[in-house]
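User: I'm putting together notes for a lab meeting next week and I want to include a structural view of one of the chains we've been expressing. I don't have a solved structure, so I'd like a prediction I can at least talk through. The sequence is below, exactly as it appears in our construct file.
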Amino acid sequence: MLVKVVAFVQVKPGQEDAFVEAAGPCITASRAESGVLEYDLWREVDGEQRFVFNELYVDDAAVQTHMTSDHFKAFGAAARDLAAARPKITVTHAIDVAE
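Assistant: Thanks for the context. Below is the predicted structure for the 99-residue chain, given as structure tokens.
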């Protein structure tokens, strides 16, 4: 069953470039994981201008594999110092999606 993960990250003012730089290696490595179908970083246009990770996995096992990967752990450690708060993460299962 497909799994969509959306993570919103509010970064400390002035740390936006450092956050994007820290995310780069994780994004590249995540896209190479066999269970990852999409792994993209976006930024809100209005409001809080949070960063948004848009992720799509083949199943729950692929999510777990990603979350235990060295590149994800390294990014998490780096992002802790750059984030203004804990990320808000939503995990969903597919009901009716276009293929």
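A couple of points you could mention at the meeting. The longest helix spans residues 16-31. Strands lie at 3-9, 36-43, 51-57, 88-93.

User: Perfect, that's what I needed.
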